[in-house]
Amino acid sequence: NAGVMQNPRHLVRRRGQEARLRCSPMKGHSHVYWYRQLPEEGLKFMVYLQKENIIDESGMPKERFSAEFPKEGPSILRIQQVVRGDSAAYFCASSQAGYGYTFGSGTRLTVV
Amino acid sequence: TQLLEQSPQFLSIQEGENLTVYCNSSSVFSSLQWYRQEPGEGPVLLVTVVTGGEVKKLKRLTFQFGDARKDSSLHITAAQPGDTGLYLCAGAQGGSEKLVFGKGTKLTVNP
User: How far is A77 from chain B (nearest CA, A)?
Assistant: First the structure.
């Protein structure tokens, strides 16, 4: 495992469709974080998960967005009924002890 | 209101020059991290500082955490074109695992 793997790298969805973004953390990392980056903006925290548990979802919009990190498989960020304002780069990061994230290369979501 | 303010927002310099970028806040952080991000990629961790007054050196990069743990600076000596990128600072507060990011300083080093 060379690092945090995110796929797809680019995702185009029409308004109203669903977007699923996947993240496989670094081997041995049990903490996963999702951040969103808008043009000219800093990264904004969305959600922090450990295996099968959502620890902090204070940055997640209340509607249409959900995240999971199942016992087996990657973490999934799901956006239902996408709107143009959801277009952004979504980054996943993982860590072991919380100090110093390793980020993936991101998924660039474009809603048309 | 941005919790972490980075300055300058943009910086364009010639190869060989020195530079300092700043990360300031009115809030206290338990730790502060610096990342570099290149276009189309995720941020890459450069350093973590946790102790007020701490200074860390990474080759030509020097990082300082303020005594009060509210601010930090990054100094680059003899900049090279390979240093070009977006430099982000990020802080953690209390026992929280989440990071608050600044908007970054976009550095361009011209050959």
Answer: 17
Cis peptide before A8 (omega within 30 of 0): yes
DSSP A16: T
Q: Which amino acid is at A96?
A: Q
What is the per-residue pLDDT for A1?
45
**Counts of helices then strands in chain B (DSSP H, E):** 0, 11
Q: Which of residues 48-107 of B touch A (CB under 8 A)?
A: 48, 50, 88, 90, 92, 96-104
Distances (CA, A) of A17 to A110, B41, B56: 12, 26, 47
Q: β-pairing, B85-92 with B100-101?
A: antiparallel
The pLDDT of residue A64 is 97
Residue with tokens 């430099």, as numbered in its chain: B87
Band of residue A99 on the pLDDT scale cut at 50, 70, 90: low
Of B8, B100, B99, B74, nearest in space to A31 by CA: B99
> Is residue B76 a contact partner of residue B14, using CB atoms and an 8 Å limit?
no
Residues in A closer than 8 angstroms to B93, CB to CB, are none
Share of chain A above pLDDT 70, in %: 96
On the question of pLDDT at B50 being above 80, the answer is yes
CB nearest A100 (choices: B48, B98, B100): B48
Of B35, B41, B45, nearest to A105 by CB-CB distance is B41
Cα dihedral sign, B50-B92-A78-A18: negative
Closest of A81, A86, A54 to residue A69, by C-alpha = A54
